[in-house]
Amino acid sequence: MRNHKSVLISGASVAGPALAFWLARAGWSVTVVEKAPALRRGGQAVDFKGATHRTVLERMGLLADVQARQTDGHDQTVIDARGRSLAVIPGAFTGGDVEIRRGELAGLLYERTASSCEYLFGDTISGLAEGPGGVDVEFASGAGRRFDLVVGADGIHSQVRRLAFGPEERFVRFLGHYYALAEIGDPGLGGQAVMYNEPGRMVAVGGPKAPAFFVFASPALSYDRDDPAAGKQVVQRVYRGSGWRVAELLDRLEQAEDFYLDSLSQARLDTYHRGRVVLLGDAAYGNTLGGFGTGLAVVGAYVLAGELTTAEGEHRAAFRGYQDRMRPYAAIARQGSAGPFLAPKSRSRIRLRNAVFQRRLLLRLMMRMTDRYATDIDLRGYPSLTARP
Hints:
This is FAD-dependent oxidoreductase. This protein is of the alpha/beta class. It has helices at residues 15-25, 50-59, 63-68, 91-95, 102-111, 159-164, 228-239, 246-253, 282-285, 293-310, 315-329, 339-342, 347-356, 360-374, 383-386; strands spanning 6-10, 29-34, 45-48, 76-79, 85-89, 98-101, 118-121, 125-131, 134-139, 144-147, 149-152, 172-182, 193-198, 201-205, 212-217, 259-267, 273-274, 277-279.
């Protein structure tokens, strides 16, 4: 294997650092660029399910640390406007085998790559020009560099995808719902996790998933995703007049320092690669709050790294192998959206959703189905990843 191939990875959440971990171990020169000024801490809880996810974490030497930082996911109580229990969502359903906050997971990945990889925070890719021997990259900071390969691990609104493949509207499908996360502090529920619904609106708060979590149905909205104040105004407007304690949560929302609002959307691509550029994670097979996004990102990083190192850097064969293996596995991300399940648009649909958690047999069937999706890949062993350079 020819070492010291250079790769630029855009995105320092989960998929990007996971890929950086494997390629740096195999002797590659790895640079990760992230538009945020620093590592993003906190965030919602994410989970891993089944033997496939566990195997990749074990091969990374990460499983024990993830388990040590898990949220110990609690049951969540669905309540009515008077706070009375309507149903209980088991922690095993929402939290998989092990659940951890996204920021904690990103921190673990960063700790394992910071000394072997170059991180560029507060910058982003502004231009890509591919030549016969590599990709010339322009950064928003004004710098320019050449890399052998470029990986877009920069989310559903991927800048790399836009530059290399085309406008977002050609590859991203809006699914009719939005979600918001806000760090609002302890709402005084005594550690209980609750979820409250009105037609087309949901809010979940309390328990180990520290951010307040909003999901709502809406036509496509025009707002600045990089402006938290604009996002807060959207949530304030949508939830104005809601029952239970939503007005109190909206008051707290004004002071939330950590806030994020985005659409539920799907990335739909016929191919994950173009030339020397390849997409990973949500940029390629964006999930929709269905509970598979983080697992897909970590498994995808392992497969992409394995194919690249096995092919000794011959990117065309490696990218084809990566796509052939991941596309069937990532099909779960194209099956629908969690939006109608979390925020049904009518009271009758809310009652029907609640009934799922009141019937143990139906719930067990759903959990078996998610386990099957999570393990539906022939996970290769890549000696090229386990052999130290």
